[in-house]
User: Fold this.
Amino acid sequence: MWTPGRRSAACPRASDAPIVARRDAARDRPGFSVNTTLLLVQVLNGLQLGVLLFLIAAGLTLVFGVMDFINLAHGVQYMLGAYLGAALAAATGSFWLALLLALPAALAFGLLLEFLVFRHLYERDHLSQVLATFGVILFLNEGVKVVFGTAPMQMPLPAGLTGGVPIMEGLLYPTYRIAILAAGLGTAGLLWFLVERTRAGMLVRAGAANAPMLDALGVNVRGLFLLVFGFGAMLAGFAGVMAAPILSVEPGMGDNLLILAFVVIVIGGIGSVRGAFIAALLVGLVETVGRGLLPDVLRLFLDASSARQAGAALASMLVYIVMAAILAFRPAGLFPVRR
Assistant:
């Protein structure tokens, strides 16, 4: 029976965050064979990674689309959410209380960064924004080492979500990972409602389409920027808290996911929440299912040893190959915002 284990966030690949089931011995035989259990676990892991990417990419795409601001430091807000969740859980003894306290704390910290650093960069060129926000990454990565130490922190699973759910005979999938998937989908639905069905969402969509025109109509664009930035920081913090019980919380844990989040917003279309959601699920599935099946596919043409080596090399490039293929036919992404 397959049971869950803990993976370290120190793994160099973001796709190592989900659990990967142990490969069946039948995969060492010649020819192409797919283990159904492995495939199902990889799909679930891919969807879970996808919803975490969406929580990060949704705020990033709105900030980029509405404010035309490249924020490389968005990944550290995910990291700060994880640290806040782990520290508050240790102090209160409750995951749920830690989650409730970490969200406003992540929001406040995001607004503080906006006030101290980011608002001074809105009128600067993109290169200046990239350099400045990269400096913020370095500063905050060192800052958490000073405050929390360099040793990874652990956050216990919440009570009631510690077991597994039988997916099929011989397979238990962790309850908490299913909860992450449900929470991500619920957040996506709420975000869709806010963006598509509320006045604030209408202003956000208008800002993404034509911010100067919105300013000319008398809308407080600076206040809108602050709202979007704070909400994006809180979403990233929420993703960090949800990921903390299944990852080691450590400095730099958001850097790899930030790269994938940028891939998501490019594929989905800058400023499009719907595009970010679909692209996040696509990237999550490509990262996990592609890594799991690519060596098997290559064994149709290569020997087992060469297939494993080539599969590992190609798997790290697979998501970027998919991005390039999509942009070749849709240069503005799958769901570009009309401007």
User: Anything to note?
Assistant: Residues 46-280 form one domain. The chain has a mean pLDDT of 83. The CA atoms of residues 120 and 199 lie 28 Å apart.
